[in-house]
Amino acid sequence: MGQMLDVDLTTRPAATNALVMKKMELKTASYTFVRPLEIGAALADHSVEYKSFCRKIGIALGLAFQIQDDLFDLTTPPKDSKKTIFSDLAERQHTLFTQYIFDQGTKKQKTELMSLMGRALSEKERPQITRLFTETGAIEYGKQEIEKQFHIATKVLHSAKFSQEIQAEFEDLISLMRHRHA
Description:
Blueprint: H1 2-10, H2 17-43, H3 51-75, H4 78-81, H5 87-90, H6 96-104, H7 107-116, H8 126-135, H9 138-159, H10 164-178
């Protein structure tokens, strides 16, 4: 469902913040975090006991991871990211960052964003793209949302009844994700 929603959104001129969040939840969070945690819990014969924990922490970590990934697409030079430059914009991906501009930007900023989406972009356009996403507040908003999701994950973890060893493993995972650069 997440992949279908992802593809569908690339055909739309605009989306909603709720739809972008749902796409990330269904595509990244559920597939990459929630399901693997649920499988691990089931293999340890704790699937019923930890189902809510797996879902809550998995969604928070998955959202943080995806928003980070979208941020890196906008801010990390290709030599450091090992990805195609500005691939989300080129593929007309509606991210939390683009959606912020569609929701909060001026008419001129929205028009500028639309002119960048759906076409190959070059490194020469980095200053324009950086300016657009910085001046609108989209970058700062995305960073705040990443931290919000890590805070939720940490809160979920601290409310779980795990041994100190397991708690420390999850804390290490959260820290590793929080400090990744690409």
